[in-house]
Amino acid sequence: MCPSALGLAPPRVQLLQRQDPLLLPPPGAGGRSLPQRPVPEPGRPEVAPRARMPVQSIHCLMPAALRLPPGVPEPLSCQRRHTLPASEFRCLTPQDAVSVFEIEREAFISVSGDCPLRLHEIQHFLTLCPELSLGWFQEGRLVAFIIGSLWDEERLTQESLTLHRPGGHTAHLHVLAVHRTFRQQGKGSILLWRYLCHLGGLPAVRRAVLMCEDPLVPFYERFGFRPVGPCAVTVGLLTFTELECSLQGQAASRRNSC
Q1: Domain named N-acetyltransferase: which ranges (predicted)?
Q2: Is 174 a catalytic site residue?
Q3: Does the annotation count 216 as an active-site position?
C-alpha cells in the first residue's frame, strides 16, 4: 500500500515543507495548515534561534587518544629519543672494568708505555671498594673515570698501588683518565671536583693522596692538593711527586658547590 493512500506525504515532501513555507498549500485547500514563520519587522535582521547541543553529544566530540593496532610499531618521530640520561655521574661496578681499561690503556700506553692498573686490578678495586670510584657517563657511554682505594699510612708505598686497606682514612687516587674523543673539554677538571665532593660525603675519608709527574702538579694544586715531597713509588725510570688534600675542612664548602 502506498503512503499517499494512508494520508501520509513522502518523507522528502515533509522535509521541504518544514524548510520552505512557500510550498505549503493555502488555508482551506484541504488538510490542516502548518504554522508559518513570523515575518520579521522591517529593518531588523532575522536571527535564527540558538541551537542547543545535548551534553552527551558534546562529550562524543571530545578528541580521543588514537592507538595503533597491536603489532604495528610507532614511527620513529613518536618514539622516545633518549632512553638513557644525557649525563650521569655514578660509582663504577665490576661490569664497567673493560670500558675503564680500554680508556686507561689508550691514555697511558702512548705516553708512559704502561698502565697504572691492569684489568684484573681494576676488577679487584671495583669489587672491594666501588664507592671510591666515579665514572662520568654520557648517554650510557663511559667518557671519564677515577678509581681509588683506602690507604692507612702517612705516605704512599709500592704496596699502595695494589692494596685496599678498609681501615684506612686516606683515599688513594690511582688513576684519572678521559676518553680521547672528550679530551681538551675540561671534563677531567669537572670529574675531579665531583670526586672530591663525593669523598667529602664519606665519613671514613679524611684526606686524599695521589702521585703524579711534575708537569701535572699545578693542575692538582688548583683543587686543593699540595705537594708533600718526592714519592717513594717509582715505575721503571719514571719518578713522581706525592700530593695530598685535606677533606675535613673543605668538605662542607665542596658539597655546597657541587
Answers
A1: 87-248
A2: yes
A3: no
